[in-house]
Fold this sequence. Notes:
Layout: E1 6-9, E2 14-18, E3 39-43, H1 60-73, E4 79-84, H2 86-97, E5 102-108, H3 116-148, H4 151-156, H5 158-169, H6 173-184, E6 198-203, H7 211-220, E7 227-232, H8 239-242, H9 244-257
Parallel strand pairs: 2-3, 2-4, 4-5, 5-6, 6-7
Antiparallel strand pairs: 1-3
Helix pairs in contact: 1-2, 3-5, 3-6
Amino acid sequence: MDRIAVEEDGEGDAILCLHGLGGDSNTWAALMPALAGYRVIRPDLPGSGRSAGAGGALSIEKLADTARDICTKLGVGRAHVLGHSMGTIVAQHLAAAQPHLVRSLALFGPLVAPNETARAGIRARGAKARGEGLRGMHDIAISLVQAATAADTRQRQPVAAAFVRESLMRQDPEGYARNCEALAACLPAAVERIAAPVLLVTGDEDAVAPPQAVRNMAERLVQAKSLRTVILNRCGHWTPIERAEDCARELRAFLAAQR
C-alpha cells in the first residue's frame, strides 16, 4: 500500500476510480468536473503509472484487494466505483466480493473477461513489453492508438489520440507486462450477484468491449438495482478520453440518481 500512488480531491460521498491497462489516474482527468461535490480517489494501480514498482506478480484479484485496501486506509466504507477497461473487471470483482463497499458501478468500455483471441494478444503485448522495453512500449502505443480509438478521434481529436499514446508510452515496461499477464489470466467475477446500480458505457467502434458484448453483459446483471447501457457514436475503447462530455453527462445523471 505504501508504494501505491493515490490522488484524492474534493469532499463528499466517495468515488473510487479504477483505470485500465495502460492507464493511470489521469484517465479520469477529463471527467473530474462531473465529479464536483464528491471525494474522488484515483489510484495508479500496482504496476501502472507512478505505482509501477508495486505489487510483484499481479492478478485481477490482487488489484481488487488493493482497491479495497485503499478504501480501508482512507476510511472509506462505501464508494461509488468507476472503472475503465481492465478497471471494469477489477470493479466487478470488488462489487461481487465486497458488496457492502460498492455503492454503484459506472463502467466505461466494460467487459466481464477477454475472449481467448484477446487473451493471446494481451500475452503477446506483455512479452513484447518485457522483451523490448521502451521501444516495445512505443510500438504497442502506436498499434493501440490505431486499434483502440475511433477513426473520428484520430482525425478530429488529435489531442485525445495523443493522450492515449502518451498514457501507454509512459508505462513502465515490466509493470505493463505484469498487468498484461493479470488480464490475460483473469476469470470473470460473479456478476450475477452484483446488486448495486450499474451504468455501462461503450463506443460503437470499441473492439475490446463491442456493443453486443456489453448488451450480453447487461443481461447477466440480473440482480442490479438499476441498469443503463449507453452506446456512444464514433467512439472507440478509450471512452472517457474520446467522448468526455458524453461520459460526463451520463455520469452526472447516474450519480444524481443514487443520492
